[in-house]
Write a structure and sequence with these properties.
The structure is a homotetramer. With about 350 residues, chain A is of the alpha/beta class. Chain A folds into two domains: about 120 residues, NAD(P)-binding Rossmann-like Domain (Rossmann fold); about 160 residues, Dihydrodipicolinate Reductase, domain 2 (2-Layer Sandwich). The first copy, chain A, has ten helices and 13 strands. Chain A has a seven-stranded mixed sheet. In chain A, strands 3-2-1-4-5-6 form a six-stranded parallel sheet. In chain A, a hairpin with a 4-residue loop joins strand 12 and strand 13. In chain A, helix 1 crosses helix 10 and helix 6 runs parallel beside helix 8. Chain A is globular and about 60 Å long. The interface between A and D is large, with 55 and 55 residues. Chains A, B, C, D: InterPro entries: AGPR, AGPR_AS, AGPR_dimerisation_dom, AGPR_type-1, NAD(P)-bd_dom_sf, Semialdehyde_DH_NAD-bd. Chains A, B, C, D: Its main location: cytoplasm.
Chain lengths: ~350, ~350, ~350, ~350
């Protein structure tokens, strides 16, 4: 069987990464590629790296153009997904890499996004307990945010095992500007970013905060709190999250390692590194892998976890394809086995 | 059939890239991984990105450890390949990513490397005329240097078509430090390289000069000359060569495009970009593709060609695997179809 | 005496660099800072690094606001300088960092800029023969382009000494995106530029070509030709030009070194590096220095010169201030003696 | 009066930065430049950016060579300072940029450095309460570590004002590899660092932890605790620390701003940025300035402070010179007023 896919919003970074990962699959046919203002251009003008697709036409994002596909990926600005999704049949698998259908709380949505809540779709983070069952056969999937994927995976085994209870979590996460998309803003210019690190969204205002807290609650945290600070650093891709939380009681690093090793024994993409190795983003560049390492800081009474992933791959497009594989009953790792491009 | 491969010199960048590209192939079994001073360590200490191979043992580079493989890749310092190769049977495919067996002229070898010439093996650049035939069934292959691959492919159609005759070629090629390997030298430290560009090997002394001239002669250039300057720039991988040469006579850019399009119509990995797009190294990062674009500078009477490739992929390990595929009668693109990781 | 200066176009990179270099001078008073669309904002919104000027108001670029200054720097888009300059008195020193008044040939201007030629002002490259005399006392100065400064200084002693005659010059120059200003274009985004090298303006179409040829003619080249290719690489600032040209006759590298050492013996900012050292852009970062090294490629019969400078400092704002110092009769190096920020 | 200075350990990054900042001062004479293994070389082989000092000889680090200077800067590996200092007269100002004399607790020293405690010298952080008085006239000064300077300045006003009490401080600090010096280690190679972020010294083991806690206690914290994680990111210089701590009670961001503005009203180098601007390392590159911004995260009940400085300038050499100025009774800002080189 060949899966015919369409990408709405193909000119952005998420769209490009979906196509990079899908274009070489034998079981996938690349169907309609659509956009809004760029309709009428060639894909190569937006993604020179998609060598085999350079001459493909970018079509307008219309129900007619998106019709007739098995899977439609939405890589649209926040707020635009609901209308497009509504035009697609219920038998079509629609996978939204935007935020619109991630949050369960309409109140959280309003507080952080300021618009009306579109609803909630099954959440595309298969590593959450019971989540694979919810995704299997689903025809609507909300891809998690890149920081929520990183930080949730960094803490999940510790919260599940009661090593931490999820209160007073502090996460600081250097990342590259590809997560901000192709927005033409001065602070995203290369001249401004190269050779410089800068924090943004400081003080609890980043839109991924409620999503992370929602995940921690699903993992069993009764009243999680989170201080989260993303930091722009001079690399195109990657997230390197340092996440710490107060220990619930005396814990050795070996106990933590055991909990993580056990939790991820059967996970294909999440890897607890051997002792002595600390995650680095280049190790997962372009791949669907997540690298994790743990430490116990006795003097500060905190568990410290460092996690690395590629924000466009596992953090967006790779995660989306992993969920697609599950929803369609394919092997979960299909098309996602390449390793990080390093050095 | 499963191809059992070994890598001698597995801890360096070339060795790591070979394993990255081979580890996910169904038709390849990763056999012995060997090194010299690092024997006894784990592969993960050298290549954190090789997620599925982190716990593999690094063995000593001995004939016994390298015995029993279908293919042995040599990723050794210059001068070390001959002895290891001599210990391997003639039925074993030996692919050397070093320089030892590239040059046909013992005099050139002596002038640029200062040691005794080891000999000449079939040259692993399938895009040269008639080269695929020489590689098919071969059991010894010399992988070209990364700059020779770039500059030769940049000029090949123009030399073959007589657009230029190969004299007074000027090539300047920004590249990343991964091409220099893991040498522990001050000028290769991150602090020195980030935010800075610097030339090296200036004035005709770079060891790739005679190899490039050898290739130009094979393409038909009677008396090629080359001014070549590599430039270190702040990126880990990639070569972006700007190559120019005097036009043999009045030539339009369309004539040049036609010659290149025709020459590469059936080449799986070399791509003349659509008009208006200029090569960028990120577009081929981690991939086996080469991107090329051409211009005619009438006022300066020069053909100008820009070519981009990944020095560790098509420039070393990808090119090696492409040649392996040909030598073993496999589809030439097997395991090499992923596209560049961008942005 | 205190020199009261104004900057028209203060929000761009050239404007910022002028202020960085002038703000700490005891003999300079920072007067009006003006802009067009950003009038009404604070300077700190555009230049966070100008610590002591963060709260300064950005005024509108009007004759009234620019009146009453000893020196007015114009850091405006091409084509905008003439009108502003016309409103300033003839006794005011007006220094234009734009291209409008650089070219002497109206035909060249039309061919490369496509608009009407504004005229020609004294050219602010004091290192050209006789140029200091032309700048002394001048009240109108055109600051050279950053590539023309680099390439002209790379070749000047060789052309003057007849080592090369200026025909068939080939220059390839990696540079950072700050030279393109704060233009909000996708290819200047950090995500696109980091980790990548790409050529642009290939084939003789870059606007600095006629300016470089004009300089070579002034140095004595009868019929200079130039193949020039700029290359964007991942660093904010800096130009590293590799410039080569056919040797007029047999020449040793020592003869070349002698010519350069002699030509620059009294130049405060141009430095022929000791033998064995090759220019690197970090060595001149933020400084007004130019570093140069030479080689003779006998086999290719070319002189090869590598030159490094900071495109915003010596290449724009530093060069402008150097000319200001000369025009006002101040010590030429005043305020320009800091060395490159490395590593 | 001219101050004659010597630098022991002149070939490293700290030594180079001291010379960069001192070489252009009219009131400073550059005396002996010494090193150990590099004695007999020229300074230009180690610091190409020190244009005016390229031909200076590197002498051996001996008492004879260091004799006869007003100020001797020690930029040596940890553990080497005591012996050199003992050979210098008590009237000579000795400023140690190493760690040897920073800690007051011999127990802390033993726990984190594993050798015998050398003693304690006046601590060169003038922004600490009462510290300028201790430094005035002193002839021995211990320069603070780069992370301690950053994190202490980030928290000082909040601890002094009782906004936080110093317990459960969490600091995560992306930085560049220049802080690690010119150590020839694989993980510091440019190929490994460019395009990648990685944590190190995780879990409370970094040697700067006890120094930071010592400073917090001096500021009035009764029982401070600290979880500190440095992160290597792809820039040569700079520290961007995100520091958070539980609020002692309900606090508005305006109250915090008032406390910081008040505390730093007279500080020449520490700047609370205007509201809306967040620190970025390029803004302080090469300068002695520290940029700070604050937020209150009510939901997480934490004060969040972001601070940026240049680890080699204010974090090492600039701070050292600031202390020298104070010790010698010179204006504190002498030679340190240049602003950050951005973009």
């Amino acid at each position: 069987m060949t899966i015919k896919i369409a990408v709405a919003g193909c000119t952005g970074y998420a769209g490009g990464e979906l196509l990079r990962l899908l274009a070489t699959r034998d079981d996938v046919e690349i169907g309609a590629l659509t956009a809004k203002t760029s309709a009428g251009t060639k894909l190569g003008q937006h993604h020179q790296h998609l060598t085999t697709l350079l001459d493909r036409d970018v079509l307008d994002t219309t129900p007619a153009n998106l019709a007739g596909h098995d899977v439609v990926f939405l890589a649209l600005p926040h707020g635009a997904s609901a209308e497009v999704a509504a035009s697609l049949g219920e038998d079509v698998l629609v996978i939204d890499s935007g935020a619109d259908f991630r949050l369960e709380s309409a109140q959280d949505w309003a507080a952080f996004y300021g618009t009306e809540h579109a609803g909630t779709w099954p959440y595309g983070l298969p590593e959450l307990p019971g989540q694979r069952e919810r995704l299997a056969g689903s025809r609507r999937i909300a891809v998690p945010g890149c920081f929520p994927t990183t930080i949730t995976l960094a803490l999940a085994p510790a919260v599940s095992a009661g090593i931490v209870d999820g209160h007073d979590v502090v996460a600081v996460a250097p990342t590259g500007p590809s997560g901000a998309g192709k927005s033409l803003k001065p602070h995203l210019l290369g001249a401004e970013l190269m050779g410089s690190a800068s924090a943004y969204g400081v003080g609890g205002v980043h839109r991924h905060v409620p999503e992370i807290l929602q995940n921690l609650r699903k993992l069993g945290a009764a009243a999680p709190t989170l201080s989260f600070t993303p930091v722009l650093v001079p690399m195109s891709r990657g997230i390197l999250a340092t996440v710490s939380a107060p220990l619930s009681g005396p814990t050795t690093v070996q106990q933590v390692r055991d909990a993580y090793a056990s939790a991820w024994a059967d996970e294909p993409f999440v890897t607890l590194l051997p002792e002595g190795l600390w995650p680095q983003t280049q190790s997962v560049l372009g791949s669907n892998y997540v690298h994790v390492q743990v430490a116990v800081d006795e003097a500060a009474n905190r568990l410290v976890v460092v996690a690395a992933l590629d924000n466009l791959a596992k953090g967006t497009a790779g995660g989306a394809i992993q969920s697609m594989n599950i929803a369609l009953g394919l092997p979960e790792t299909q098309g996602l086995t390449t390793m990080g491009v390093a050095p």
